[in-house]
Amino acid sequence: MDALLFLFFALVAVGCGINLVVQTHPISSALSLIGVMGSLAVLYLLLGAEFMAMAQLIVYAGAIMVLFIFVIMLLNAGVERKKGTSMLVKALGVPALVAFLGMVSYLIQRLMPGTENVTFGAFQGGTVQAIGRKLFTEYLLPFEVTSVLILIAILGAVVLARKEI
Amino acid sequence: MEFIILSFVKAALVAAVLLTLAAYLVWIERKVLAHIQLRVGPYRVGPHGLLQPLSDLIKLMTKEGVMPAQVNKFYYLLAPFLAVFLALISISVVPFGTEVEVFGIKTYMQLTDVNIGLLVILAISAMGVYGIALGGWASNNKYALLGGLRSSAQMISYELPMSIAIASPLLMANTLSLREIADSQSGFVWGFIPNWYIFQGYGTLFIAFMIFITAAFAETNRVPFDLPEAENELVAGFHTEYSSTCFAAFFTAEYINMVTISALATHLFLGGWHPLFPEPVAGIVPILIFGSAGVVLLFHASQTSSTRPWDRYTFPLFGLVSLGLAGLFTLPMLPLPDVLLAIGKAIHPLFWFAAKVGAILFLYIWIRGTLPRFRFDQLMKFAWQFLFPVALINMLVVGLIVALR
Predict the structure, then answer these.
(1) Whether complex ipTM tops 0.85
(2) Chain A contact present for B126, CB below 8 A
């Protein structure tokens, strides 16, 4: 069951990812990106990282992508026109891509043995309690520094917007 | 295998009840609004207009669906589907009552009990913007586009105070599962004040409740925050170009979202299915309510006026139904076989849950009958300059109270 679900949502993620690049309309690309994020959230769920899955949906699919779509709609961006591609790209594009992907997958296979559990720092388990406890004890300093960083970004945005008025 | 069959049965049951409820919510809204404005409301189709939802449904289904020229067909059709789909998904984690035993199978009155239930609802309500924004954009109409943009801006803005307001009862309950949150609110303080979160935290959780309800109104695009479909500026907002079944889909999604968010408020602040009164009284209250309603209806049946001839038949009918319901609630008090006793025990929590959700839904309609619409800049100012800071400070105070407890 798990393997089937993984296969299905992995395929959806890859399909949406390809669709993102292929589509010419910005809205279609943005919606494909939402599809990628949604299927990634399901993959997180399958790995037992329930909090990460929901954070992925709330933050990326729910908030950031809404802003993307908002901007695309406001700017009323139209369909992209295809520019003429050179003969070199047409001839070598697909082989180069296949070679690159093969190299990356080989490296991953070599560097990461498949039997070991994947861990991320000191985080154990994906429940909200586990992540919260680690975040506010062991990783308190990075957490606070990140929040200050985001605050600076917000202040910068406000200052930039104010100059326009 | 049993699990799959059970899930299918429960899903079908929940979807059927929810869609019927959404249809009748429209009837109730029209009736209540009519009585607020000293009118009668729907009255012609069926007794007291009770078949009005059915006729509305037939009307919407059989109407010609007009698709305007030059729309983006795929997204135009995707948007209403997405709206209903997301609205129906989020109810799946909401529990309706305690554990019940049907034909020897023990199950919760809930589709799935996930331990991140609240986050699931937040995530899906965050995704709910897409249905509206996409519908507005794909219609190729400036009013629809403006409605969609307004809606997405409004929903992003009000999601912040809503999420922060939700955090306060979470700090008290220490869990994200809606079932555990509801269960943590059982019992009474001094024997008569229920242990609900709205009464706790020295009034801070009441403020959180008010913020939550306000933001919930904006999230569901209801008056006074129904800017996305403000009819005197935007024709009908994001669903201007939708007709027939597609329009019905948007309409249904809005009402289902209202039910979901009311259920969420009930679980977070109003104690879920736990009764308002301590035990001996709590068992009698539903019997009293339905019994007195039945008696009053039967009494009025004997003195109907000639202008409303149907009342002679409908009043006794409704009276008898009411008395039957009252009889149903007396089941747990009688010496009966186990099957009937189980039904009696299951419907009491259901009654309290439905009563609280109904009260919040009534508040929705009541406010629609009372308040005028905001202006858009007022709406945004209200969210960012008042609701958001108040919610933040309030959550800090709640955190302090929880830490010192």
Answers:
(1) no
(2) yes
Q: Looking at the partner chain, which of B123, B129, B137 has a beta carbon nearest the beta carbon of A57?
A: B123
Contact A74 B119 (CB under 8 A): no
Distance from CA of B316 to the nearest CA of A (A): 51
Q: What is the pLDDT of residues A117-142, one digit of tens each?
A: 666 666 777 778 888 888 888 889 99
pLDDT digits (tens, 9 = 90+) for B47-71: 778 888 888 888 888 888 777 777 7
| Residues A58, B156: C-beta atoms closer than 8 Å | no
**Could you give the number of structural domains in chain B?**
1
Does residue B291 belong to any structural domain of this protein?
Answer: no
**CB within 8 Å: A128 and B176:** yes
Top-tier CATH class for A1-79: mainly alpha
Please state the domain extents for chain A.
Answer: 1-79, 122-165
* Averaged pLDDT score across all residues of chain A: 83
Residues of chain A with confidence (pLDDT) below 50: none
**CA–CA distance, A155 with A146 (Å, rounded to integer):** 14
Looking at residue A99, its pLDDT comes to 92
pLDDT digits over B314-343, tens only? Answer: 777 888 888 888 877 777 777 666 666 667
| Residue B189, strand partner residues | B193
**Percent of chain B at pLDDT above 70?**
93
- Whether the CB of A63 is below 8 Å from some CB of chain B: the reply is yes
The CA-to-CA distance between both ends of chain A, in Å, stands at 56
Asked if residue B203 is part of any domain, the answer here is yes
pLDDT of residue B289: 84
In terms of CA atoms, which chain A residue is nearest residue B158? A63
CB B184 within 8 Å of CB B265: no
Q: Which residue of A has its CA nearest to B117?
A: A54
Query: For residue B378, what are the domain limits?
Result: 66-274+330-404
Mark which residues 119-138 of A lie under 8 Å from B by CB: 127-128
Q: Does A58 touch chain B (CB under 8 A)?
A: yes
Tell me the pLDDT tens digit for each residue of B212-252.
999 988 888 887 877 767 667 777 777 777 877 888 888 88
B314 domain-assigned: no
**Residue B281 domain flag:** no
Q: Which residue of A has its CA nearest to B128?
A: A62
